[in-house]
Design goal:
13% strand; alpha/beta; 8 strands; 285 residues
């Protein structure tokens, strides 16, 4: 393993998953035949989130049409999208009594609109079941297709999230099938069309410099992003992009201060922070 437990500093050590609430969430997910990014991406916060009765739903199957060098979601030929999935997500969210529902997906470059209409159907199903709950969607880039952006803008999430993940220089090594400017433009266009709260996330420890990060903070601020998450990159295996450095907690605090200084309203910065971490507490309002 490139990122073995023995090499991690103390602040990145994670307790074993388990507990009564953890199993209860698992049972709901199994009963409704749903995937979560918590499991698919092997999120280090899964135990904490499940034990608090929350999960981030992963729609359109467990396999991704891209093979990003940082991600533990399995690449490969995707299955057909199940039209019953939006209702099953809504039913599970209702059973879990979620007041803030987070929905993400694998990248589906095989679909004409990248899966935008399935996000829209899922948002509608959640609204119908849980009209008092807020909805956050974390989407892929849809290759910047205007028709997909229009569908996403029209589906009415409370928060639109799209992760830049890293600095532009590292995209060829870390996100070879993506483009920094396409991702930035997606955030800008959804905000322009709707005025909705926009959010993004960055990983650090991939080999970026402090100066490059600050430039991205300014890019996000100029794009009117309201919420930013910053967390430590952890290589899922030796086949993934290696960890260049583990940042100590005080550096995360400093990065958070620098990001807020650009005008980003809410910044959650810490070693184990991920896009959906404590999402209900950070709504950009």
């Amino acid at each position: 393993m490139a990122d073995g437990e023995a090499r991690k500093p103390e602040w990145l050590r994670i307790r074993a998953f388990g507990g009564k609430s953890y199993e209860a969430v698992n049972q709901v997910l199994r009963r409704h035949r749903l995937n979560t990014v918590c499991r698919a991406a092997n999120c280090p916060n899964r135990g904490e989130c499940f034990n608090h009765g929350t999960a981030t739903f992963l729609i359109m199957g467990p396999r991704c049409t891209r093979d990003c060098r940082f991600c533990d979601v399995q690449p490969g030929p995707p299955a057909e999208v199940d039209p019953s999935e939006p209702e099953r997500v809504a039913a599970a969210a209702s059973e879990l009594k979620l007041r803030h529902v987070v929905v993400t997906s694998v990248t589906r470059d095989d679909l004409p609109d990248g899966g935008a209409r399935y996000f829209a159907a899922t948002v509608k199903a959640i609204r119908d079941r849980l009209p008092q709950s807020t909805v956050e969607i974390l989407t892929p880039d849809f290759k910047g297709k205007p028709e997909a952006v229009a569908v996403i803008a029209g589906c009415g999430p409370d928060i639109f999230n799209h992760n830049l993940e890293t600095v532009p220089r590292l995209y060829p090594a870390v996100r070879p099938s993506a483009d920094f400017q396409v991702s930035l433009s997606l955030l800008r266009e959804v905000q322009r069309l709707t005025g909705v709260v926009t959010k993004s996330g960055l990983m650090v420890g991939l080999g970026e410099t402090a100066e490059e990060l600050e430039e991205v903070f300014w890019d996000l601020a100029h794009t009117r992003v309201s919420i930013l998450t910053i967390g430590q990159y952890l290589a899922p295996s030796s086949k993934h992009h290696p960890v260049a450095r583990y940042l100590p907690p005080d550096e995360f605090a400093l990065l958070g201060q620098k990001a807020k200084a650009t005008g980003i309203r809410e910044v959650l910065s810490g070693p184990l922070v991920r896009s959906s971490y404590h999402a209900a507490m950070f709504t950009g309002r």
